[in-house]
């Protein structure tokens, strides 16, 4: 997959330990192997995205296999489709899902995330893929670069996703359902109110193809309970009282409830 300069949109060329465009904009390759293509002008904070602690917690949790059914569903669904070309995972996190999907399909992978810590973790472990720090609103690759775009528990940028896909390419989106992680919510909140609506099965510019429910239970002990919280948006909303109750929770049995939506570029 070719890369574009995030400043002037000209093609980037690899020169030893950096990427350079014809206008002499230069981007160093980090020691771990990723490249930072997120200009300061497109950052919404000094350190956007997940922190190092959050990424480390996600790595430990996912490596424990608790969310393996999600990866397995992605693989099983993709194997039944005529996917051609490269995989682009937008909002890749530390790389758990995309690396397994790319290996199963034997397809090249480019993963990107706005969190530099996330792509640092991904690049440090999954050496066969290319990892970028970049924003989903300005994906630094040419039109028609990918055969499959994935966005798992991440934002959907319909226009950009459509642009980077080949005609007939696929888009996989995983979204949490309203009853996702009710066990965790019942601990950290005084009252659980299911405000969320079921996710719409529609994306502008795409044809809906499949809707695959994913629901399974799992049991956590010790630090993995805290790791689960660190993976969710609830880490930013939890009160001191909720944090205290969670800290006192030595074992948690919960249910993951989400959905895989499969779209085809029209």
Tell me the number of strands: 11
**What does the radius of gyration come to?**
19 Å
Helical residue percent band: 25-40%
Task: Tell me which oligomeric state these chains represent.
Answer: single chain
Element pattern in H and E = EEEEHHEHEHEEHEHEHHE
* First-to-last CA distance: 22 Å
Shape: globular
Determine the structural class based on helices, strands and strand pairing. Answer: alpha/beta
Mean pLDDT across all amino acids: 94
Largest sheet: 8 strands, mixed
Task: Provide an overview of this structure.
The chain has 266 residues and is α/β, with parallel strands linked by helices. Helices cover 28% and strands 28% of the residues. The chain is built from eight helices and eleven strands. It has helices at residues 52-63, 68-79, 96-105, 116-125, 158-164, 182-188, 223-230, 240-247; strands at residues 13-15, 18-20, 26-28, 35-36, 86-90, 109-113, 130-133, 146-152, 165-176, 206-221, 251-265. It has an eight-stranded mixed beta sheet, with helices on both faces. Strands 1-2-3 form a three-stranded antiparallel beta sheet, with no helix packed on it. Helix 5 links the parallel strand 8 (146-152) and strand 9. Helix 1 crosses helix 7 and helix 2 runs parallel beside helix 3 (96-105). The longest helix is centred in the first third of the chain and has 12 residues, at 52-63. The model has no long low-confidence stretch (mean pLDDT 94).
């Amino acid at each position: 997959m070719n890369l574009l300069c995030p400043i002037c949109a000209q093609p980037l060329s690899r020169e030893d330990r950096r990427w350079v465009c014809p206008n002499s904009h230069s981007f160093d390759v980090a020691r771990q192997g990723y490249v930072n293509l997120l200009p300061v002008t497109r950052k919404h904070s000094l350190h956007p995205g997940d922190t190092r602690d959050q990424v480390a917690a996600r790595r430990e949790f996912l490596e424990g296999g608790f969310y393996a059914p999600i990866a397995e569903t992605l693989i099983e669904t993709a194997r039944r489709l005529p996917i051609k070309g490269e995989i682009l995972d937008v909002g890749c996190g530390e790389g758990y899902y995309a690396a397994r999907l790319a290996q199963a399909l034997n397809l090249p992978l480019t993963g990107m995330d706005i969190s530099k810590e996330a792509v640092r973790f991904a690049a440090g472990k999954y050496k066969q893929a290319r990892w970028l720090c970049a924003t989903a609103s300005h994906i630094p690759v040419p039109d028609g670069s990918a055969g499959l775009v994935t966005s798992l528990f991440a934002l959907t940028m319909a226009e950009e996703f459509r642009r980077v896909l080949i005609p007939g390419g696929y888009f996989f989106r995983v979204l949490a359902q309203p009853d996702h992680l009710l066990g965790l919510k019942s601990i950290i909140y005084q009252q659980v109110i299911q405000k969320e609506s079921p996710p719409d099965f529609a994306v502008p510019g795409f044809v809906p193809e499949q809707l695959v429910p994913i629901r399974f239970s799992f049991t956590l002990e010790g630090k993995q309970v805290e790791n689960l919280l660190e993976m969710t948006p609830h880490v930013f909303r939890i009160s001191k009282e909720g944090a205290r109750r969670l800290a006192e929770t030595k074992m948690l049995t919960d249910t993951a409830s989400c959905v895989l939506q499969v779209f085809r570029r029209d």
